[in-house]
Design brief:
Layout: H1 3-78, H2 85-98, E1 102-108, E2 112-113, H3 125-141, E3 166-176, H4 179-190, E4 197-203, E5 218-228, H5 243-247, E6 254-255
Length: about 260
């Protein structure tokens, strides 16, 4: 092998080494930087899309804020943070005027701390099996019985509602008027701005009912109104129930209609 050929191989090897070093020292860092830049652009683009979605949601929430405030005001009127019995009595008087009845008496008793209703315990499996067997035997020996009454729905409770922030104020209202007017009064009371849960409705009647000059029938409506303390004003770990607050809202527990 002559000298010229050796020089050519040496030049080719040098060129390969120069190209390799150039790629490693010059091109590869640029390629890595370009890849990192593309990944960064993708990350920033994703973040921007998330931010734009959040801004869109915030704009929608802001647009819905007046309606939410209105709904909150309605709910706070239905179940206020204090007993507000004077306001409730005023509404009862107004509803009686609108339904042609006369309020004779309004009585409120001491507020009671809320007690969640416990769900009924499931029936014993063995007893259920025995009952099923007995019912099967009875069905084969006797005509079919009447349909079984539907079962009550499952109780639903909110863990945020406790005896520490929710109370019940029993109310009894006596009005005078006809049966139809009394029903209208009860319907108006249940549909009023203050939530009223009806429990009983009855009448003492009139001995002269139906005759001229007879005294109007007297109707008694019993039920509950409710108080929900504002979470922002309730200290953490407070042991005082809203009972005292509900009582302090009205000095007199009995009011008579004019």
């Amino acid at each position: 092998m002559d000298r010229n050929r050796l020089m050519m191989f040496a030049a080719m090897g040098t060129a390969v080494v120069v190209l390799a070093l150039g790629f490693l020292l010059g091109v590869q860092p640029q390629l890595s930087a370009a890849t990192a830049s593309r990944e960064q652009i993708t990350t920033v683009t994703t973040q921007n899309e998330q931010i734009r979605a959040a801004i869109t949601q915030l704009q929608a929430d802001n647009d819905a804020l007046p309606a939410l405030r209105s709904e909150l005001g309605t709910l706070q009127t239905a179940i206020p943070s204090s007993a507000s019995l004077s306001t409730f009595i005023s509404e009862v008087s107004r509803l009686s005027d609108e339904t042609s009845t006369t309020v004779v008496d309004i009585t409120t008793t001491e507020a009671e701390a809320y007690a969640p209703v416990a769900a009924a315990a499931p029936a014993d499996a063995a007893a259920t099996t025995d009952a099923s067997a007995e019912s099967t035997d009875a069905a084969t020996a006797a005509p079919a019985a009447e349909p079984v009454a539907p079962t009550a729905p499952d109780l639903v409770s909110d863990p945020a509602i406790t005896a520490a922030n929710f109370s019940v104020v029993p109310v009894s209202i006596t009005v005078e008027g006809s049966y139809s007017d009394a029903l209208d009064f009860v319907a108006a009371l249940q549909g009023g701005s203050r939530l009223f849960a009806l429990e009983t409705f009855g009448s003492s009647g009139s001995e002269e009912a139906g005759s001229e000059g007879a005294a109007p029938d007297s109707w008694t409506v019993s039920g509950n109104v409710y108080v929900l303390l504002d979470a922002a004003s309730t200290p953490t770990g407070a042991t005082t129930t809203p009972t005292a607050q509900a009582e302090g809202d009205a000095d007199d527990s009995t009011a008579a209609g004019e």
